Amino acid sequence: MVFGDLTGRDPRSLGEAECSAFELGLPPAEAKALQQIAFDELASKRKVAAEPRRSSGTPQRCAQ
C-alpha cells in the first residue's frame, strides 16, 4: 500500500520475487497475493492504474 500510495505505481509491478518480501521470508505466492490486495485497494481509490508486471524469477537479496 505504501509503495503504491507514495509512487502512484502498481504494487504488482514489483513482482513476486521482490527482494523486501524475500528478506522478510514471504513465499513468492504470498508476496504476489499481498501485491494484488494492495493494488485492488489503491485502484478502488483511483490512486494507481495497472502496469505491466515483472516476470517471476529467483528472489535475490536487496542491494546493500
Briefly, what is this?
Helix content is 44%, strand content 0%.
Could you explain how this protein is built, in words?
The radius of gyration is 11 Å and the shape is elongated. The chain is 44% helix and 0% strand. The longest helix has 17 residues, at 28-44. It has a domain at 2-44. The protein has 64 residues and is mainly alpha-helical.
Question: Key features?
Answer:
64 residues; mainly alpha
| Tally of helical runs | 3
Instruction: Report the end-to-end length measured between terminal Cα atoms.
Output: 24 Å
Alpha-carbon Rg, integer: 11 Å
Q: What class, by secondary structure content?
A: mainly alpha
Average pLDDT, all residues? 86
Estimate the strand proportion: under 5%
Shape: elongated
Reported for the largest beta sheet, the result is: none
Number of strands: 0
**Which spans of ≥5 residues are poorly predicted at pLDDT below 50?**
none
The helicity comes to: 40-55%
Give the SSE order as H and E letters: HHH
Set down the secondary structure blueprint.
Layout: H1 2-7, H2 19-23, H3 28-44
